[in-house]
Amino acid sequence: MVVGRVVRWWMRIDPTRRTQFWHRLARAARAAAASLTGIWLAAAPAPAQQTSPSWIIPDLAAAARAEGSLTVYSSMNEQEGLPLWQMFEQAAGVKVDYVRASDSIILARVAIENRARQRSWDIAVTTTVNRLPDAALLPIDPPQARGLIPQARDPNRRWYGVYANYNTPAYNTNLVQSSELPRSYEEFLDRKQWAGKIALDDTDDEWLSAMIAHYGMERGRKLLQDIVAVLKPVMVDGHLALARSVGAGEYWVALNNYASLTLNVQLSGAPIDFWALDPVALIFGAVGVSAQAPHPKAALLAANFVVSREAEQFLTQRGRMPTRPDVPVNPPAAAERLKGKKIIATIFAGEEQKKWQGLFKEIFKQR
Questions:
Q1: CA distance linking residue 362 with residue 357, whole number of Å
Q2: Domain range holding 242?
Q3: N or C: which terminus of the chain carries fewer CB neighbours within 10 A?
């Protein structure tokens, strides 16, 4: 009824006036739409700015891209190392040749290549970097190294700590109950049932030096000799191999290993954990740049990358312990277990290292 009246009224209006009405309505609609569009644009968040990673140095990155590639020697397993260096490749535009080997093999290989003056590697990331000859490493000052803890910065600028290796025993949680764990190294002598089921990396002279520093030469040496006699520990080549062997149940206990590698294997789903005893030896997985680097600019950029917050945050996802206070430990409880323990930084090279290596072989040689 009402609609019909409106229609009849509309039809009585002059056609010219009806046309003018429609034009005014269209203009009003366009104005309203423009107003709303302005409101939406003002309310919408601005597009995110693409920011460069903190470790990128533009001029150095350009020079590194011109060199084209980078060769990395590292003891870090491929599950960590390859995705870590893929981050570098994508951000820097530099191809990475990743060469993985154990700490001792990298040390020997670099020493041989350095004597032959072969320009075969750019940077090394391993625990034995501090043992390399002075002539093999270029003194560097990566800007990102300012964020490291003081102990992780070499006073001579030859190496910088990428991750911290706290030395602790470890055990297979399916084979050993937490209530059975020794509360001191002396209590290992009461675990005769572990004989032949306990293992140790065959290059743990840093841990040995911390034990002697804590107990004294005479007492410490006798304690370790007694442990060898009672428990007959098996020598294993490589800390990662040791962690995986304990996680797989091949050995029940590691007399010592890197807590970060225990966590690394634990995060992969294996039944393994660590506990801390005094003393806790501390060494670093460190980065050093070759004095004969075939790609020197890429090497400098890579050294800055690997000590950055972004790189260390990535590594903590794999259980590595950070050397930067601004990167939290993963899992957080791991740091709690180290609180209150006597932590002894064991960083040495040259003749001092040979001394401890000789004593280690004397005490732990197979009988």
A1: 9
A2: 167-282+356-364
A3: N
